Amino acid sequence: MEGTVVVVVVVVLLLLLVLKSGMRVVNQVERGVVFRLGKALPSCRQPGITFLIPFADRMRKVNVQVATMPVPTQEGITRDNVSVKVDAVVYFRVTDPVRAAIEVQDYVFAVGQVAQSSLRSIIGKSDLDDLLSDRERLHEGLALMIDSPAAGWGIHIDRVEIKDVQLPESLKRSMSRQAEAERERRARVITADGEFQAAQQLANASRIMSDTPEAMQLRLLQTVVEVAAEKNSTLVMPFPVELLRYFDRATQKIDAEIRTESVPAQAQEKAAPESVEQP
Question: Which of 6, 58, 104, 240 could disulfide-link to 153, CB 3.0 to 4.6 Å?
């Protein structure tokens, strides 16, 4: 009886050891690819506790999180013959853990090599202006170039971004001079446009003042008021030209009246002696 109990206990312990050796835990961010006698099973193990057949199954865990991989700086010559250095970053994730574990030996290294070659290719196909300003289109083209081979490995490229474009120092100086000249040109155009608009307004104002001379007097008085408000300078007020013209017109009118009055008087003086001699 005691021998039977011992055997049962030993069997139970062996079963527990076998179950423990075959028990695995898969994290939430991982998927398990099981190789049974060297052959991969078509379905992967989901997160949680999973059991393997001892001495027959072997499990490889594959991370399915979005991975960020910087692309080393690549030097190349653009289509317009400018030497540049460009670095980028690739965001990718595993969509098919079984294919990622079988089709490629090291999918991270493989994606990195494809990204480097694609980046050098995109540099040679683009102009410098596209690298500096039209990056969204380059990002889409670069992501498509990397995603084409990666899709066969069970990898999906989420996004590719160019981080920095390093230019030669001589080119930087030339671009700075060009930008400075462009800003100076814009400043001159703006100044000329302001002077043109001011000249138009002054021309309109001069036409209005020529039609109504009183407007010039009002403008003069307004200027005097503005200057006098400061109270820190001596004001020399010019004599209004319109007032001189008024006096001139008044003088001419008086002279005309005097001449018209003097003509009948002279006529009467000449006619008086003739009337005396007739009797």
Answer: 104
CA distance 279 to 275: 8
Residue 29 has φ and ψ, to the nearest 5°, of -90, 10
The pair of three-digit structure tokens given for residue 106, joined into one six-digit string = 């090291």
pTM given for the model: 0.59
Q: What are the residue ranges of helices labelled H in 51-168?
A: 97-102, 107-125, 128-133, 135-150
Question: Could you report the per-residue pLDDT of 23-45, keeping only the tens digit for each?
Answer: 788 888 888 888 888 888 888 88
* Distance in angstroms (rounded) separating the CA atoms of residues 93 and 31: 12
Contacts 24+ apart (CB under 8 A), 122-129: 123/74, 123/76, 123/77, 123/78, 123/84, 123/86, 124/76, 124/77, 124/78, 124/79, 125/79, 126/78, 126/79, 127/78, 127/79, 127/80, 128/78, 128/80, 128/82, 128/84, 128/167
